[in-house]
Specification:
Number of strands: 0
Order of helices and strands: HHHHHHHHHH
Low-confidence stretches: none
Oligomer: single chain
Radius of gyration: 17 Å
Helix content: over 70%
Shape: globular
Number of domains: 1
Amino acid sequence: MTGELFYLIPIFFFIALVYSSAGFGGGSSYLAVLTLFSFEFTTIRMVALLCNIAVVSGSVWIFSRKGFLKIRKILPLVLLSVPFAYLGGRMKIEQEFFFILLGFTLVVVAILMMIFRKEKTVDLPRYSNAVIGGGIGFLSGIIGIGGGVFLSPLLYFSRWAEVKVIAATTATFILVNSISGLTGQIMTHGFQLDWKVVGGLLLAVIAGGQIGARFTAGKVNPLIVRRITSVVILVVGIRLLWKYLLVGF
């Protein structure tokens, strides 16, 4: 398995670089890539969540230093997302259903991201944020990602905040839900990983994530990067559906 690092490290670095530019951790693409290698099904979700945590931890720190982290707006979103992500992470699902669900959700969110329009912001009731956060947290825990690819489109459509605040919020949401989802999986499946492999992947995504987050927190318009990211998500989703739904297992 260590020989696969030769291919996985540059791939994970690129994924972290691109996704962190949009405030994401890259969990959906880590999942898709790892399915092509000799990782066990339960290991795949844990590795994806660990990489998510590594990337968005750095992103949250950078966005916070730049003043884009609005804790009072974020709290209602994470209030229910954390316990529901934990519950989702404890659910046992069939491998085939898992990848088909992931493929469909990625295609949907990619299309939604492509049609974003920047408009003035609108404040939503706090209970709406809590319901949205809880639902996304549960689905994210089941799939094994932080939920940013689901949350970000909803925040844009609701005109929740300006671009960089949404990126900072997405990164924070991914961080807390990835930790919660990983905890649920550890409680269900245990925590046995090849740390020689996982350590190399974590170093790669930390490096890529730092570059991407600093890129967005600077003067670059993150909408451009977000549209590039939506194409990446769409390709991953279509590839999963082609492999697990159309071609067969």
